[in-house]
Protein: Crp/Fnr family transcriptional regulator
Organism: Flavobacterium restrictum
Amino acid sequence: MTTLLKQNIASHISLSDTEMEGFCNLFQHKTIQKKSFLLREGEVCKFEGFVTKGLFRVYHIDKNGLEQILYFAIENWWITDIDSFTNESPSQLFIEAIEDSEVLVISKKDKEFAYSNLPKIEKLFRVMTQKTHVALQRRMIDNLSKTAESRYIEFLEKYPKLVQRLSNIQIAAYLGITNVFLSNIRKKIAVRK
């Protein structure tokens, strides 16, 4: 169950077998059925998770009742509401399984334990936080400076396997456009080919 987690960790930092086992043993396995929630708005996020199977969407509902997808998480991706988890405050996000999914979760207490007893783990989360920050910054710049069509084309190129697992409505919510607008973009692209 932890093989994928161990591979992910090893891609960021080097741990001894003992350190790796000690850290991985702090995670608990959860199975989440399709359309079930790992987190709901208003709850305090008490975990950081690592997806071992399936697909999640992390989203917010705006004041007009529209869904705004921050990101998707598939196998080998980390998932949490970092604001709620860090500050122990009510979440503004939903984390919902789009498919039957499995996730390994670590609590804040166990993560702090790892920081104290396995110093390399702080480096692991620092490196991952930096990579996440870079990705979010690039996404913000793209949303401010690129057309919806170019964002859609880049999404297709960057996540070809993910696109096959999502509905057009979900992709539109991620891109910040309506499903109708996305359909128009797809038609325009098809005509050009």
Notes: The beta strands are 28-32, 37-39, 48-53, 55-61, 67-74, 78-79, 94-97, 101-106. The first strand starts at residue 28 and ends at 32. The domain at 3-119 is CATH 2.60.120.10 (Jelly Rolls). Residues 141 and 187 are 26 Å apart (CA to CA).
